[in-house]
Design goal:
The chain is mostly beta strands. The protein is built from no helices and 5 strands.
Length: 77
């Protein structure tokens, strides 16, 4: 499926007493019924975790999805 994926900011947060970089992405795509926040987006070698889904202008023509990607260390996200 076609999508425009743009990183919008990066920051670090503490998780399990380790610093892990996290990047927030804005994904713009055609409207697809049934996309939910429990799904993930595969982008290159990353898995993006969906945090928000907006039906642009509630017109069922485009979705703006906010998703995060955490750096993978030692085989763990």
């Amino acid at each position: 499926m076609w999508a425009n994926i743009m990183p919008i900011r990066g920051f670090e947060q503490t998780l399990e007493e380790r610093l892990r970089p996290e990047t927030v992405y804005r994904v713009l795509t055609r409207y697809h019924k049934g996309i939910t926040p429990d799904m993930k987006i595969k982008y290159k070698d990353r898995l993006l975790h969906i945090t928000e889904i907006i039906n642009v202008d509630e017109g069922d023509f485009a979705l703006e999805i906010t998703a995060t990607s955490k750096e993978i260390k030692d085989g763990k996200e």
